[in-house]
Amino acid sequence: MRAHIVTYGCQMNEYDTHLVQSQLVSFGADIVDSVDVADFVLLNTCAIRGKPVEKVRSLLGDLRKIKARRPLVIGMMGCLAQLEEGQQMARKFGVDILLGPGSLLDIGKALESNERFWGLAFRDELHDHVPPAPAGQLQAHLTIMRGCDHHCTYCIVPTTRGPQVSRHPDDILRELDLQLAAGVQEVTLLGQNVNAYGVDQGARLGGYPTFANLLRLVGRSGVRRVKFTTSHPMNFTEDVAAAMADTPAICEYVHLPVQSGSNRVLRRMAREYTREQYLAHVADIKKHLPHVVLATDIIVGFPGETEDDFAQTLSLYDEVGYDSAYMFAYSARPGTPSYKHFDDLPREVKTERLERLIARQKDWSARKNAAKVGTTQEVLIRGEAHSDGFLEGHTRGNHPTIVPAAIGATGPGVYPVRIDHATPHMMYGTVLGPDGHPLPQVPRLDPQAAALSAPLSMA
Ligand code: 5AD
Ligand code: SF4
């Protein structure tokens, strides 16, 4: 079997793709990188906003046409598969296999079945399953929990991924060991709300560490860098910031989605915290980690958001000083409370506010990144950049970074890099040797082409 997987959505979905892909490989499948040569195409779908849903609809339309011409098995997994909206689509476009986020391990059964296979259960075995480490990569994801116990009124995830279930720490550490043995240097712990890790199990079974203690366990395993995403502010306790400060491997990067700066909107979103409580968390984090890099998620144009509410989002934004942000216009999702109870704002209002927020964020990113010029950052180089002779990677604070290849730094690895130049979205630097001086650059064959692609000209 030649299988091709297309992945939409978040890092959880990327992880799930890796998990299913490793299952397919264990059944003897070849993973191919184009639909044209595949006899099984699997779409790992996202349902968080209207756009990814529409992308899946149009791809399913294309696949149905291909299937009319030649044998093709079409599969659909991920968040959209769990929803009636996705199942309707699956029926319409002739999907053969449908697996919700809790049923991924049914992939074998599904492929053996001669009939249409629908898997929608949330199975506990998923949490014990340890997929093999990704081959030849310095970075890996590691799921520590699935699902979410919050009920933000705009969000479809509690419906698609079910209630929160934390994974047993032994399974997490076993997977981490495999990753370390495979050469992984940076691991990102994943969950819808990692800060609440263990809360669902602690009282009942005991023996689960708190998230702060899990961070310490992972941080002391020998892995070089640890990141985590994402955190609900309500569950962000000061001991997490303290664990970050006392465990050097934990990167000083915190993604703390705020969604809105207006208490009225936060209440309507059922976020369970106020602007003031959120700012108190940020103050705790900054106290323990003075050089923390802060990122957030913001939704603009939530139903009923007034110009004054939006002004409060902008002012909170300035008060915190985020290094980066994922910014979204509210997208009404069938099945969520806000879809049912509130009227959507006009699209122009949402777009206009989103543009203003993006402009504000760009100013902050420019300012924050400029402050890093002249500093030395630890950069994980993933490999070659688009322009010849350059390598790309990212810092402990997740800043995308480009460096010229240097003698002693021609490929993947973790290197100290002096930042020479920064734009709002990119840092440019020079790899330093053990003596703190720049390593000599790899001579380029065509100096003219190299000059054209020099970092400053890309700014
Ligand atoms: N519309 C727009 N953005 C949304 N998000 C979640 N649901 C919606 C929605 N209905 C955003 C939130 C969340 C991020 C993953 O996606 O900001 O943190
Ligand atoms: Fe990830 Fe949420 Fe999209 Fe599901 S709906 S793939 S959890 S972003």
TrEMBL record:
Q: Which UniProt keywords apply?
A: 4Fe-4S, Cytoplasm, Iron, Iron-sulfur, Metal-binding, S-adenosyl-L-methionine, Transferase, tRNA processing
* UniProt entry tagged with the keyword Ligase: no
Protein EC: 2.8.4.3
Q: Where is the MTTase N-terminal domain?
A: 1-116
The chain positions of domain TRAM read: 370-433
Q: Name one GO molecular function term.
A: tRNA-2-methylthio-N(6)-dimethylallyladenosine(37) synthase activity
Q: Locate the residues binding [4Fe-4S] cluster 1.
A: 10, 46, 79
Annotated residues that bind [4Fe-4S] cluster 2 are located at 148, 152, 155
Cited CDD domains: Radical_SAM
Tell me one Pfam family matched here: Radical_SAM
What this protein needs as a cofactor is: [4Fe-4S] cluster
Cited SMART domains? Elp3 (SM00729)
Localization terms from the record: Cytoplasm
Class in the EC hierarchy, top level: transferase
According to its UniProt record, which reaction does this protein catalyse?
A: N(6)-dimethylallyladenosine(37) in tRNA + (sulfur carrier)-SH + AH2 + 2 S-adenosyl-L-methionine = 2-methylsulfanyl-N(6)-dimethylallyladenosine(37) in tRNA + (sulfur carrier)-H + 5'-deoxyadenosine + L-methionine + A + S-adenosyl-L-homocysteine + 2 H(+)
- Radical SAM core domain segment(s): 134-367
Instruction: Outline what the protein does.
Output: Catalyzes the methylthiolation of N6-(dimethylallyl)adenosine (i(6)A), leading to the formation of 2-methylthio-N6-(dimethylallyl)adenosine (ms(2)i(6)A) at position 37 in tRNAs that read codons beginning with uridine.
Q: Which family does it belong to?
A: Belongs to the methylthiotransferase family. MiaB subfamily.
Supply the name of the protein.
tRNA-2-methylthio-N(6)-dimethylallyladenosine synthase
Q: What is the lineage of its organism?
A: Bacteria, Thermotogati, Deinococcota, Deinococci, Deinococcales
